[in-house]
Specification:
alpha+beta, 44% strand
Length: 196
């Protein structure tokens, strides 16, 4: 009887030890916390448009873009899947978001630090890039032009090689100035910003 009690006590202590170590792991914070659940689940079927993010320090300003990254998969993208002249969430599923730690200027418009929606209106030769107060929505379903913070018209460039998946890049051009590029299929656009 004593042996059963001893084994029961050891089993309970072992379980308590496991749950304690799991709680410690939950409190560990580093940049990997930006990863999404889709990336964390090893062995799970990879989603067709995984949620991903890109970030960079531009001077002392942490710039973070979070987006759903669809793949071309043999489809006609611009002028097909993504229509010309219509507002696009610039990604799959939830609208793409952009966050600035510090105030910035885009096209001489001041933008306060915070989180925003990043929408675009693709065209054959130029795109309109939109930074909106609205960021928490499915695709561009609830997009409202009245909430635009800034709109910038930028030229569209043809890529030499096909970008299979939608990709964003944030690059420091010079101290306090950055550039954001969007590439997919054979099209690339970019726009600049600077810290205030």
């Amino acid at each position: 009887m004593k042996m059963k009690n001893l084994m029961f006590t050891i089993a309970v202590l072992a379980l308590m030890g496991c749950s304690t170590s799991e709680k410690k792991d939950e409190k560990t914070e580093d940049h990997t916390q930006h990863q999404h659940d889709a990336k964390k689940e090893e062995g799970a079927k990879k989603p067709l448009s995984p949620r991903t993010s890109v970030m960079a320090m531009i001077g002392s300003n942490h710039v973070h873009i979070d987006y759903g990254s669809p793949s071309k998969r043999g489809r006609m993208i611009f002028g097909g899947l993504v229509g010309y002249g219509t507002v696009w969430a610039t990604g799959a599923h939830k609208a793409t978001t952009i966050s600035f730690d510090k105030d910035v200027k885009i096209n001489e418009t001041s933008i306060s630090a915070g989180k925003y929606g990043l929408f675009t209106i693709p065209g054959e030769s130029e795109w309109t890039v939109i930074i909106s107060k609205d960021w928490d929505m499915h695709l561009a379903d609830d997009y409202d032009q009245a909430n635009d913070v800034v709109r910038v018209t930028v030229p569209a460039h043809k890529l030499d090689e096909v970008a299979e998946s939608l990709t964003f890049e944030v690059v420091e051009m010079s101290d306090g100035k950055g550039q954001i590029s969007i590439k997919w299929d054979q099209t690339a656009v970019s726009f600049g910003f600077e810290n205030k």
